[in-house]
Amino acid sequence: MKRQQKPCFVRTIAALLSLGLLLIPLSAAAHTRTTAWGPPSPPATYYGPVQANSCFVPAAQVTVTAWIDGYPCGLSETQQVGEQVVYAISVLPDGPGGTPGCGAPGRVVTFYVGTQRMTPTAVWDNSQSWELPLNPTCLFGDLDHDCDVDVADIMLVASRWNTLVGGPAYDPAYDLDHDGDIDVADIMLVAAAWGDTCGG
Ligand SMILES: [Ca+2]
Ligand SMILES: [Ca+2]
Questions:
Q1: Average pLDDT, whole number, for the chain?
Q2: CB under 8 Å to 176, separation ≥6 — which residues?
């Protein structure tokens, strides 16, 4: 019986040793696989002035966001530099260390300053930093700056119904015919643009 136990013990040690020998190459393989993936991709960086137009005047300390296919992929703030409002934003990559759905070569990045959608869009590319002046998309009647004219914009005008220039609730942004009051004529102007979109 003793002669049979000893080989059993030996066999156990041998099994453990061989298991250890198996684990070493497995862990080495896992390590190799990790390093083969490499470090996460760096983000893509865009910067430049934020331009004004008749619909939109940029300000400092306004949130700048970058979107790819509906995913939020970047966040920063505008800054005042001399006379100019500028921005710089890092747009995260997809995959390890990044955010699922975000940047990959060829994907289109859309920028917003506050709620104002900006143009142009950019193609995600992290091979260098890109200077990209942002211009507001300007759409008559799009009072909430979401790039379409719909009931939400009409409601914004209606919320200032019957206000007069000089009054506390009067806001020239909603006096679309610039006649000093906000009334049915202004609502009709928004309604006339119903369904318009920025179209890119
Ligand atoms: Ca709108
Ligand atoms: Ca008016």
A1: 83
A2: 140, 141, 157, 186, 189, 190
- pLDDT for position 147: 80
105 alpha carbon to ligand 2 midpoint, in Å? 47
Neighbours of ion ligand 2 (CB under 5 A): 175, 177, 179, 186
Cβ atoms within 10 Å, residue 105? 13
Class of domain 44-136: mainly beta
**Residue ranges of the chain whose pLDDT lies below 50:** 1-3, 8-10, 12-17, 19-36, 200
DSSP single-letter state for residue 148:
B
Dist. CA 184 → ligand 2 center (Å)? 8
CA distance 82 to 168: 32
In the chain, where the domains are located: 1-38, 44-136, 139-200
Q: Helix (H, G, I), strand (E, B), or coil: what is residue 141?
A: coil
Q: Which CATH class is domain 139-200?
A: mainly alpha
pTM for this predicted structure: 0.59
